Amino acid sequence: MVELTKTGIDGLDEILNGGIVSHSTTLLSGPPGAGKSVLALQYIYNGVEESGEKGVYLSFEEDSEDLRQAAESLGFDNWQHHVETGDIKVYDKQVLLRETDFNASLELLLDELDGEDYQRLVLDSLSMFGLFFDEERERRTYLLKFLDILAENGLTTLMTTEQEAVFPDKDIGMENFLTDGNIYLLQTPTETGVNRYIWVAKMRKKNVQTDIFPMEISHGGITVHENASAFSMLNEDDSLLQ
Fold this sequence. Notes:
The chain is 33% helix and 25% strand. It is α/β, with parallel strands linked by helices. The protein has one domain: Rossmann fold, CATH 3.40.50.300. The chain has a 9-stranded mixed β-sheet with strand order 5-4-6-7-3-8-9-10-11. Strands 1-2 form a two-stranded antiparallel sheet. The chain is globular. The longest helix has 17 residues, at 136-152.
């Protein structure tokens, strides 16, 4: 039987048929503002609050104070308490980008986590992670090495990446092949704001609902609604989604 890790996000665990496969790595893709970092923060926070699972948050884009403010603005009021107790370990851009060599940052991370019992990890984002490397081949080599280390340490990981095109055949990267799951966050403009959607395109080792579902971001984080959106009909004019 496949072990699952619940995200704790209303509606998402239902379309995942129970949660993310434990000890796997899932790629969370979407354009800026689609909610990737919100989902990542919520995943780590819910792990501590609801499942008693400690989490690690690697941010190449924000500092720890920015993350605290973002979490508290969403209603994750105990975020800083969990950071101070060590239940949530934050490595922000000031720490991760201090080193010019990824090996040095990786060794720092492994040294500090050695012997600690963490179950969840977020890397936000792969786009900034790539700044460590001059060549794409080197970046892929280290990404594979990093994914292997995460799996060996029993971590269930979310990685975020920016991806403008919705459907992977239009804007596909090596990360889509290397990771165990692919979740896309979509958004379309309206006269009053934006409509947001979530699509679980792939999850190895288990069946998931692959329709596209509407979602919203409010106080308390992301909520996914169970009624499949009209965008589930993939043969429709998907130019609206680009």
